[in-house]
Structure formats: C-alpha cells, structure tokens
Specification:
Length: 181
C-alpha cells in the first residue's frame, strides 16, 4: 500500500513538472512599438456620411531632420509614408486630379520636387517601399504644387478636406483634387 501511494505521488510530481515545463516553453514574443505608426484616413461626406475612400499609411517622424530634398530626395519615387507603400481604396469611381479612376485599391506614390510633385496611383499593391515601383502599372498621375505651412508637422499625415487629399509633413503640404463621380 505504501509503495502504491509512493508511486502515485511520484507520478503526480512528474506530470506536474511536465505541465510547468510546457507553460515555460510557450512564451509569447510581442513586437515592439512601431517607429512609424500606421494610420487610416477616410474621405466621406460630412462627419458621419458614407465613406468614399480609405488611405492606409505609415507616419514617419521628422526627428529634427530635413525632410524634402534630403531624407526624401527630390526627383525620386517615394512610398509616400514609411514601411509598406501607402494604399488607397476608392469605394466609388473618382476623378483623381484630372483622371477618371475606377473604384478599387491602388498604391500611392509621389515624386517630390521643389516646385511641383507628381502624385501617382499605381495598380501594384502590397509593395515594400518603392523598391519594386513599376511605372507601367500607373493608373493615374497628376501634378500638385507644394505649399509651405507656418507650423512644422512632426509626423507625415494624410487627410481629406474640401474636395482634396492633403499630404503634409514638416512645413510642406500638397493638395490633390479628389471628387466622387
């Protein structure tokens, strides 16, 4: 009888030890906080109206750097944010600048220059940065004139206001007309 109790006690200790070992082996590693947080901007009618477009993008920080012309070189394709290329989804057909664009999802690229920007919708989705940008996949390309802002904007930002998609960072702002058809 004592031997049976001893064996049961040993078995319980052994099984309990396995459970503890399993619990220790299943540690979860969570990613650290993003350096370029992801954000979403919506184009809608009023505050509660239907959504006509959604932009998903990462918002890099200025961090005391000169942005346009240095960090983002003039004359080169930019992912228009950080990390993955910015993506815009139109839920209805729109006029983007002067080009009719069908409802759907597109990558948003820009080519900043000192006096004008090319703002580009491209059908090549799910790109990291602009490394695989292919101009043959451009759906729309429009020119925009950069404007200087009075205040410095620390994070790159995209918003919709007054029939325009606004791209802004540092002291530079660009507006692209976007109108639902």
């Amino acid at each position: 009888m004592k031997y049976t109790i001893f064996l049961l006690l040993v078995a319980f200790v052994f099984v309990g030890g396995l459970e503890t070992a399993n619990a220790q082996e299943t540690k979860v590693r969570f990613s650290s906080i993003q350096k370029s947080p992801t954000d979403i901007s919506y184009m809608r009618d009023g505050r509660r109206g239907p959504v006509h477009a959604k932009v998903v993008y990462s918002r890099p920080y200025k961090k005391d750097r000169t942005i346009f012309g240095e960090l983002v070189p003039f004359g080169k394709v930019w992912r228009t944010g950080a990390d993955e290329a910015t993506e815009i989804t139109f839920y209805k057909d729109v006029m983007f600048g002067g080009t009719e664009v069908k409802a759907g999802s597109y990558a948003l690229f820009t080519i900043p220059n000192k006096d004008s920007w090319d703002v580009i919708l491209n059908s090549g989705l799910h790109q990291w940065g602009a490394f695989t940008y292919n101009s043959d996949l451009d759906v729309a390309r429009t020119k925009a004139t950069p404007q200087m802002m009075d205040e410095t904007l620390e994070n790159f930002s995209i918003a919709f206001s007054g029939g325009n998609m606004i791209l802004a960072w540092d002291k530079t702002m660009v507006a692209v007309p976007v109108k639902v058809k």
